Amino acid sequence: ERRRVMEEAPPSKRQRDGEETLSGAEKVVFNVKKAVAGAAAAAFDVELPPTATVRDLEASLAAREGCEAQLITIVSRGKPLKDADAKLSSFGGGGEPVPVVYIVRKPAAPVAAPVAAPVAAPVAAPVAAPVAAPGAAPGPAPGAASGAASGAAPGGEASTTNTASSASSVCGKHSTKPGRRIILMLRHGQCCHEGERDELKELTQHGHKQAEDTARFISQLFALGKLPTKRALLHSTSRRARETAAKLPVHIQDLEVWNADLLRETDPTDKPFRAEEVFNRLFAAPEAGDSDALVIVAHNNIILYMLMRAAGVPIERAAQAWNLFHLRHASITRVDVFSNGEKKVISVGAAAHIADTAVTWRNVTGADMSAWKGGGPERHKFGGRMVVLVRQAGGQGSDASISQQIRSVTDHVKSLGGYMMSGKAMVACTTAAQSTATSIAAKLKTVPQILPESIVQEPEAAFLQFFTVPIESSRDTVVIVAEDAPLLYVLLRSLGMSVEETKEARALYSIGHGSVTLVNIKNDGTTKVITVGDTCHLPISDMPAC
């Protein structure tokens, strides 16, 4: 097997013209390396006086890169240097080099004609299968389709033919049609032996069921034209991810299968640039006129990091995303990437396609004993308040289609009370959402509370009223049925965004009619988002085509 070896160049010790040499007592030396996707950059030293600040170091690196200083992010010993006024003397001195890594963030892309994304080098995979270049459109390589179509196990032999064939040969080099890549990020199924070594972490019987349900659901999306026909699968090399990914080629024909160590579980707060490298590789804009789908099977932390970066959240805040979300096993997080660089979050942790009897969100400590404990999954309802955000039924469908949406979302919300949240619920809605809310309220044996008209334009009052811990009991449920704008507002506010940040970030999300979003406010006041924009309970035939 031919592998590409990325060798690190030795640190450069050459003094630059115009630089003064400081003595060890009056300087701080930084051994600096730039984080570059696809290659290891050469290290170099930067010497600054102890009185200099982080801002001065940023300015020095910006001058070297020929960019603005605010585009530089510096990390030392796993932590971003966020205090620009901090003295460099606090990081070291006496001539001993202080290791730092920096990244140059891309400036905000102007709205312009789509430009073809450059093709990055393939990731060197430790197992037999290489990783597709992110700039390339996922799809069967010439002469390699038969191996994928036969359902070859992930990590098995794959053709070394470069899959980065130009999309212009398929769609036309000068096509002006916008390109789109649909990225589906799947958390692995439930595994056992949590906290032990990787190879012991096999899927539980419920984990296998979850992975099977998700594979079948995605295969139906492809079969009914809800996803682009060009497709590829990329999975982590961890056992639980391999076993989850193995279900997909069984049901999906012509699926190119790749793997990468970079997708293994990681703590982005400890290794932020590892996670950032994965994001930059996989979320590259497709070429104009091209359309493809990339299915990624990975882990909670890395999925959430990439989600937050796609939503425009800075590196240091994206690294903390695992504190804000609690994804269910084998759930689907979808982000659409367009050829002009724009990204849209469509869903987070969608799992309504998985049978209620198999849904879980925590791994199992020790062996899987569910078969000896009656066969049910090990799970408990969430404590505190579960806020259920339902976008009202509607869209371009017929009256019959909208009525089916209402029935489907009503049944789904009712079912959540059986295993995830309290059946004691109140329902509130906007005037435009009364039809959907009335159906849900009847199922929950209550009547909807009609919110003031002003809530649609000024939803802060709804956030302050409903996003609190329960008062009368340790567990309750609040269902809010409304249009997408106020629902996204209260969701983003629950993630700790300011009012101004929330208003700007809403445009990066697009939740469908009849979708369900779950936010859990624990009794200690902390918040966990379970899912956003889940429409997997709706008939697939009613979902929009790609």
From TrEMBL:
Classification via InterPro entries: His_Pase_superF_clade-1, His_PPase_superfam, Mito_Ser/Thr_phosphatase, Ubiquitin-like_dom, Ubiquitin-like_domsf
UniProt entry keywords in alphabetical sequence = Hydrolase
Q: Which GO terms describe its molecular function?
A: protein serine/threonine phosphatase activity
Residue ranges for the region (Disordered) are 1-22, 131-175
Membrane-spanning parts:
none
Q: Which GO terms describe its biological process?
A: positive regulation of mitochondrial fission
Q: From start to end residue, where is composition biased (Basic and acidic residues)?
A: 1-19
Pfam families noted in UniProt = His_Phos_1 (PF00300)
Segments of skewed composition (Low complexity): 131-169
Q: Name one GO cellular component term.
A: mitochondrion
Which superkingdom heads the taxonomic lineage of this protein's source? Eukaryota
Q: Where is the Ubiquitin-like domain?
A: 28-92
Q: Which family does it belong to?
A: Belongs to the phosphoglycerate mutase family. BPG-dependent PGAM subfamily.
**Official protein name in the record:** Serine/threonine-protein phosphatase PGAM5, mitochondrial
Q: What organism does the UniProt record list as the source?
A: Effrenium voratum
The organism's lineage is: Eukaryota, Sar, Alveolata, Dinophyceae, Suessiales
